[in-house]
Amino acid sequence: MLPDPGVCPSRAKGGGPGCAPTCFRHRMPASARLPRAGLLLAFLGALGCAGRVPGLSMAEGDTLISVDYEVFGKVQGVFFRKYTQAEGKKLGLVGWVQNTDQGTVQGQLQGPISKVRHMQEWLETRGSPKSHIDKANFNNEKVILKLDYSDFQIVK
Fold this sequence. Notes:
This is Acylphosphatase. Keywords: Hydrolase. InterPro entries: Acylphosphatase (IPR020456), Acylphosphatase-like_dom (IPR001792), Acylphosphatase-like_dom_sf (IPR036046), Acylphosphatase_CS (IPR017968). Belongs to the acylphosphatase family. This protein has a domain at about 65-155: Alpha-Beta Plaits, CATH 3.30.70.100. Helices cover about 30% and strands about 25% of the residues. It has a five-stranded mixed β-sheet with strand order 4-1-3-2-5. The N and C termini lie far apart (about 50 Å). A hairpin with a 5-residue loop joins strand 2 (about 95-100) and strand 3. The protein has five helices and five strands; from the N terminus they run H-H-H-E-H-E-E-H-E-E. It is of the alpha+beta class and about 160 residues long. The radius of gyration is 18 Å and the shape is globular.
C-alpha cells in the first residue's frame, strides 16, 4: 500500500529532510528502475515527496527539472532575451539566456516541472512581441535535486 501522498514515509518515521532519494530507493524495486525521465517523474510525483529537498523553496511535490533550449527564427534584435528573462522570473524559474553567433537564442531553464513546461510553451509560441519563432528545440532534460542558479540571467 502506498503512503499518503502528503506525508513522506521517511519523514513520518523520523527521517531527515532528504526525502526524495530515500523514498525512491525504498519504494521502487530494482527491476523497475528504467533510465527514462518520464517514468522517474511520474513515480516521484506519485510519492508526493520529490520536492522536499533542503534549501529549496519550490512548491511541495513538484519535481525539479533542468532543460536546455535553443530558439530559431527572428529572435535577435527584438528584445527576446529580455522578455525571456522576465517570463522566467515571473514563473519563478532560474537559468540563463544568450544570443548565439548563428542568430538563435539559447539557454537553460530550471525549476518545478509544471513551470518549466509553461516556459517551454512560451518559448515555442510567444516570445517577445516583435519576434517570429520558427521552432524551439529542447534537450538534456533531467531531474535535479537542487537548483544550480539563484536567478534568471541574460548572458552577453
